Prior knowledge:
The chain is of the alpha/beta class. Helix content is about 45%, strand content about 10%.
Amino acid sequence: MRSRSNSGVRLDYYQRIVHRLILAHQEPVTGLFPASNVNSHAWIRDNVYCILAVWGLSMAYKKIADQDEDRAKCYELEQSCVKLMRGLLMAMMNQKDKVEKFKMTQSPYDSLHAKYSSKNGLPVVGDNEWGHLQIDAVSLYLLILAQMTASGLQIVFSLDEVSFIQNLVFYIESAYSIPDYGIWERGDKTNHGEPELNASSIGMAKAALEAMNELDLFGARGGPASVIHVLADEAHKCQAVLQSMLPRESNSKELDSGLLCVIGFPAFAVDDAQLIHNTKDAILSRLQGKYGCKRFLRDGYRTPKEDPSRLYYERWELRMFENIECEWPLFYCYLILFHAFQSDKRAVEEYASRLEKIMVRSEDGILLVPESYAVPQDLVGFEYQKPGSQVREVVGRCPFLWGQSLFILGRLLQEGFLAVGELDPLNRRLGAQKKPDVVVQVVIIAEDNEIRDKLAEHDLHVQTIAEVAPIEVQPARVLSHLYTYLGRNRKLGLSGRKSRDVGILSTSKLYSLKDRIFAFTPQFADLSRFYIASDNELMIDILKGEINFLKSAWDLLGRPLVTLVLKRIHLDQDKIPLAMIQTMRKLKSGYINGTRVMLGSLKDFLNTSAITDLSFLGSTEDGYPDRLHPDVQTYLDEHLLRSFSNRSTMNLRGGQLRPRTLRRRMSCKGAIKKTRSINVDSDNLGMEGPSPLTERRLSSIVPPPWLQANKQSHVSVFATTPEEGPTSSPLSLGNELIRENIYPVDPHHSRSAIDRRSEFVRQQEMPKILIQRHRAETNFADTEVEELIAMLRETENLEEQGDILQYLVDTQGLDFNTAGLGFKNKPEDNGTPTSNANNAGMLEEGRVVTVRDLLKGLYEKACQQKLWGLVRHTAGMLGKRVEDLAKAVTDLLVRQKQVTVGMPPNNEHTITAPLPEVELRQLIHDAYGDDESTAMLTQELMVYLAMFIRTEPQLFHEMLRLRVGLIIQVMAKELSRTLNCDGEAASEHLLNLSPFEMKNLLYHILSGKEFAVSSVARGNLSIVSCKSSRVSKKSQIGLGDPEGEDALIATIDDRQGQWLRRRRLDGALNRVPRDFYSRVWTVLEKCQGLAIEGRVLQQSLTQEMTPGELKFALEVETALNQIPQPEYRQLVVEALMVLTLVTEHNMVPTLGGIIYVEHLVHKANQLFLEDQRKVQGDATLCCAKIKDGKEQQQAASGMLLCGGAAYICQHLYDSAPSGSYGTMTYMSRAVALVLDCVPKHGEMECAIS
């Protein structure tokens, strides 16, 4: 035998260690590792980490294998890896029914088990006896499976196993929205078994999804059938949520050392180098000790203070674990690997020497990694006094195989037996390097020749759908349907992909299927979806956003390709809308919003785009992999026929039918308006007290319809007598035209909402003359309905049709059949009985027509004519819901933003966990009562908020709850301020804004930018940014010219009201100063409690929660949310900030008992008014002028002269925070006066400057 080289000898030494410490424990039957000699359970996570050392060693042998015995050793080690990975695969495949069920329910009880018997791979504890749902364990398995397969091991043997693993991919793909028990199996750190969203699970899932994408599980020997497919968008969602969470681990753990495996080996899940750095620094600065790192703050596991007789902790107990948490050497192993991959030799050596000091030597001299180190019982007191000073003792298993395995990997890397690339054959470690700029390719296709020619007039040359053949263009829903066939397997009872969502990353690729090539239009362009899609400007805005998103998110081979089809529906009065032309010109120029783009035709881009093979659509299970699955074949054949055909809209009126009477028109007037509940006029926003919903309607200004002077009491002049018959009527010639000119249409038809409103006011001043006897509203006979339907047929004005239909819905219900009505009217006053040949009623092609069908027709018309107020209302009445509503809410929630809907204070509902579409819609509509328009607006705003949080997360900093009801009120308030109109007009304007302008207004309110409103055609408003500073002139437009007093208001000093407005915006958006919640924690620690609007935050919260914990922030937020008026809430926040300054500068050892924060604000208000009297300030005109006696009466009657909310003078709200008359000054004085603990006299250093 030849003498071995030094490296060979050293490797043999490691092989002995690996054999003795790790392989000796591997069960011969299943290949699994038991937890210890006394516990035969095998955890997925621990097993995968254990085998890594074996895998690493096998690759080291492969490199020096110059002798047969080395090759044999290498093979033996490799097969141990295969044995273990297959053992876990078999254990999971035994639970395939759970995988199938979990795709639907995502319930913790339907999840794969976290541990199995190492003897036979069967379950060892019941579904509900353990926190089994641990997405990170399944993800880790898939990630290492992918890495091992890429390194040349063959682990998966059959196509059935391939489809099972494809289903495991579906199992983890929505990790970003599934709360689980996490890497420590505990969920919430109180250990009560509540799962939470964990950053470490989401990061591991993202890594697994990326590693699995397009991976051939049969390695080099496989074909298209053994490839795993992942929708890129799912991995990207995990990434976005992970980035928004780091360095936080979950709601109850503000930091966790487990994140080391996400930012470094094995997951490498974070692409942002700065974020990796910040997370590692946070862990080192707060969790590192002499003996390793703590798992997380206040971790009671195995500490001397833990009560071993019960699993859970009492909430007050957690404080006892502070500073005595166990320290785990395992994390030093992670840090060594982290720095080895960064090739930072110095840091590797430093951690290696630290680790050696705390390892335990066995009898035969092998270094062992112990599980953890705890403070001995008798030294706990000293450790509390001086954290980190006491000598600790080993607790738990030794050797701890998870840590031992990582330690051996670290040694192999340090001694040069392995290169980092060998442990990461998929090159995941390069994710955080800078990538070149992405060029987004855009293809515009015309629906037919006519549209192509229209575009050519503008010098834009495109192809039609027919001309791009053989490439087929399909809507995104076709792709989502095709993906449901992925992973189907009859033998295993697996049904394929459940989610129907395909994002922009998936539609930006080309797909090949046998010899066909498909391009898909993006999901947002699918017109059948929702009314938002019929606003061209908004669609263009979304397109720009998506192009921008592709620039940052695209990481596939090839360039992204966005295919858009320009259709008839997009035309505006048969012209291509200007906004579209401008955008196409921009695209042609090569840059749009800072992203490089190329506009071209599909065939130009074939070579540069990413192409994915849809081979999984073959009937592999029936033995014909080359033929399409029969269902797919029929679906495609059917779909290709109707993919881009237009839907015909329903016609409301029969062509020649002439009207009968206009008598009932007035009683429906304003029916829609009566349902509105946005409240603007009351200056104390949302402060109505407990009055029931109906009393908060805007219609309080409008007299009930039957009291209104009836202007249209003319009987129809052109009542055609039966002899003439409708055909010979002169009217039927220029039907539309004449109707517009001589027909007595609603006089309000084309006027703006403001004129209409003055009309109402005028009507109120006129004596109420009832021109006609109206039968009581309640006595409904058929005739009444018939007249209504007759009116419905003849009126051209959609608003009016809306009012009539609203009235019909209220009285008859949505499913009322209108067939056969509206013709056989009662004899008219002029005595001519009417009958009509066409008695078929409103039958359309011989079927029943319900009120719902009529509403649908109206909805589609309103969409075409862009009457947005009506669109929103009819959409609400039809119970439409935004397609992506649940997705939008999930997008907000997983980024740790809670959402509330409904108007505060009484009808506000908080959404804290993702809900299904139907429940969400129900919740929103319950919150707004009958107010359909606002309910629809709420859904719409949630979608815009989700768009913003995806593209501009910085807008949402320091906001924990998004209160959509308040945001709507503030939007209306801002409009009424900008337009100088009253509340009702403002809310009319708000509901009539086009979706694009609505999104724009929301953006200005979120970002705090000033805006002006300009009027564009058709009485629509447009929101324009003011380019100047944050505080600019009030917009000077009313609609039309500002008359009289309006002009005066607009020219008053525009600085007035600016602070009030900022406080109102910040209050409504729940925005707080930086580190606000953790600073409130320090205040709470020094007093017995903080009382806000009747809610007391107890000091005991600090016992349970750490300062940076999200759960604590939510407690504070809930208390602040009790305050209905946004500007008052902001002053309370300012008062709390002053208290934090008192504690931070250690002026006093304790703040005493319960502090009533409102007292501070009211005290500050008193001091302010006293100063105002002294200097004769503005407030002497309102609050400061009355002497004390009358002041009491005034307060009792509930309103201040200046309209300030919560009895605080408007002028105080409008003072800047700083300066000698600033709010902070008064707050500080109030704190000094109200708190007993602050010394009343003597010198004190003033820290508040």
